[in-house]
Amino acid sequence: MGCSSNTGAADDSALTQQNITVAASPQVDLAGLYIAQEDGFFARQGLRVTIEQLPSSQVVTAQLKGQVDISAQSYLPYIEAEAAGARFRILAEASTLKPGTRTLVVTAASHITSIAGLARQKIGVNGTNSIGTLLTSALLEENGISPEKVKFITDAKGYPAMPSQLQTGSWGAALLAEPYVTIAEQDYGDQELADMDQGATQNLPMDGYVATQAWAEKHPETAAAFVRAIQEGQTIAATEPPVVRAAIAKADDLPSLVTVVMALPGFPTGPVNAQNIQRVAEVMREFGVLGKQYSAEVEDGTLIRSMIG
């Protein structure tokens, strides 16, 4: 699919676990994962990776039960769980917000034509206290509307089901990620009400690859091998947009009509940057997604540092 520099193969005998289950949904933010799988980067590291699609609201629980080894999704539920006493390790960054990659949409026939029109409306998001909740809360606050004036509704099936659910009229708007923004526009004629890449959330880190701290400490060589493969996938994603589009088209069985025009996020490479992830915690605290009782841990950075090895 793409080309990459050789970061070295793992010594299989050093891996305490070769079969890994990764919870992920085929959204463009996770292109590095799908490229690494398609191009054999995991296999070259001695890993056999199974990508399991789970609703984002179920992933943290599944990981804590040992049903999932690594997840690929928003940092938000992990930061929240870490503050509450769970222990997670961010292995690698997956994506950052860019124009068009997270969008609040309404139906073509909607009477909602401005952000002010969202007051007293139901807004569909991909999970309870999700990145959708955070981005929408920030947008509302920065436009003089309390998030308490809207009701966030979680779709148990996540982003793939949300464009069609919006058409039923049970929500006033929905916060979608690519490629589902483009699908909503092309399949249903939905319209963009607001792009989330603005204000306090501009260029905000979106998704990452996360394991429990217990798993990472039990399988350090396996975790390192996973990261090496992901870094190869991230490098290609960051430099070869056509490969990203092809990977998502295959992973989600999408036509090129969708993938050729979908917006692409940023794809960070290299070690996890604590300052980047710190921004997420600060925005969570500022807009009420993370309780005030955790303010001290957020302000001094200890909460995020505890998640980065």
Structure characteristics:
309 residues, alpha/beta, D-Maltodextrin-Binding Protein, domain 2, 5-stranded mixed beta sheet
Strand content: 15-25%
Number of DSSP strands? 10
**What name goes with the CATH superfamily of the largest domain?**
Periplasmic binding protein-like II
Written as H for each helix and E for each strand, in order along the chain, the element string is EHHEHEHEEEHEHEHEEHHHHHHH
Q: Give the C-level CATH assignment of the largest domain.
A: Alpha Beta
Task: Specify the number of helices.
Answer: 14
Query: Order of strands in the sheet with the most strands?
Result: 2-1-3-10-4
Number of domains: 2
**Which whole number gives the mean pLDDT?**
92
Shape: globular
- Contiguous low-pLDDT stretches (5 residues minimum) are none
CATH architecture of the largest domain: 3-Layer(aba) Sandwich
Distance between the termini: 31 Å
Under CATH, the topology of the largest domain can be stated as: D-Maltodextrin-Binding Protein, domain 2
Could you provide a short overview of the structure?
It is built from 14 helices and ten strands. It has 309 residues and is of the alpha/beta class.
